[in-house]
């Protein structure tokens, strides 16, 4: 029986998965007005550029470390390799909590948006939780099967989203409205509350680390993951920067703040109808729903891969690390995510929480803080791991599930440029994290709620850090990266290239001879 997942994703496939999870049309319609409102300025394009730069700097170290982390644990695996098993397990717990909450928040918001669209078109009004339940079932079916199906669905949705965003952009250009350079002015971006604007700009990139999460399904991980990471960040950054500038220009530099404050949920939809055609309002509303569905599916797949990796490493029940014999997908892990999502949505509905004001705001706020914290820890892990390497110290040996891993950079220490870029990116991440924590009460609806949410996040990290794997501590499974370090995260000497554990049938880049 085959125990490996389908290795069918190239750069384009992974980029589609990641960018679709970033939900471009949802960011343009919902996040752009929030950046204007929260920052109190029209400096959104410059803020998005700052977020793009931080992530590109972070990506330098993130991709350098890819050959040394031959599993699909993403942030968890990187922190494990760089800061040790305890920190890695704590990060894994935070990852699961964060992405489950982000999945649930998007599921509930999707139920509301789809319900509103259904009522508008048919007059039929259904409770949001019933629509969310249907969406959970559909996502569960798609994610249960091989990754090609999810990639195809996300690819179609993403193409339609980008076409819609480009249509709005071109509509503004064709409308003859003044294209002002003011949004790119540092003085404008620093006016008001730039920290909050940067935070909401940063949220539009969430899920980009999924390039590493899908490494077991990548055709050539050592090449695919770095390329897909840079392409995803650049594509998202350029699209959002240009689109935010044109949206502000379309609304009018002097009127954009007032327009966003008057109707933050519909100001961009109205603009689309004005500069393209009236029907574009309906098209945009439909695409917001499909975009949220794509985002939900993307987050579901990310959580499934985390559970799969933790099951393979013995941290969670090994059944979660099994591959479906037909679909060659982590179907049991996906089924677990479906069940967990359904239970949390059910409990939230029974508690009569408002799906937008409470569920979406609280859950996504907590999930956002968790993701930013994981990225900051990952930057520290790359700095520690890359700074301590030298001759004779090697990563985990390469095995079948990660062809060529740990060969490309062998025992080399990270270069000065890599360490400097990672350090600057990490500094930026910690600044964003500080801003997020300072504004956490506003994000989750009050000080008490903020304390409860923060306690959940810290508790998850501590619980994960003290939890022990069901097999030997940190034992690798099919290429996991735990073999290359001691229990406290320090490196251990291993067999040289071509020794035990290496496949002589593979070339140095992981291809079959």
Sum up the overall morphology in one term: globular
Structural class: mainly alpha
Mean pLDDT: 77
Per DSSP E runs of 2 or more residues, the count of β-strands stands at: 0
Q: Low-confidence runs (pLDDT<50, min 5 residues)?
A: 391-410, 470-513
Radius of gyration: 22 Å
What would you say about this model in short?
By secondary structure, the chain is mostly helical. Helix content is 66%, strand content 0%. The radius of gyration is 22 Å and the shape is globular.
What do these coordinates show?
It is built from 19 helices and no strands. By secondary structure, the protein is mainly α. Helix 1 packs across helix 14 and helix 2 (24-39) packs across helix 12 (256-262). The longest helix is centred in the first third of the chain and has 38 residues, at 85-122.
Topology:
Layout lengths: L10 H11 L2 H16 L4 H21 L10 H9 L1 H38 L5 H17 L2 H28 L11 H4 L4 H10 L6 H4 L7 H31 L4 H7 L4 H9 L3 H34 L18 H20 L4 H34 L27 H23 L1 H5 L2 H20 L47
Which key features would you list for this structure?
513 residues; globular; disordered C terminus; 66% helix; mainly alpha; 0% strand
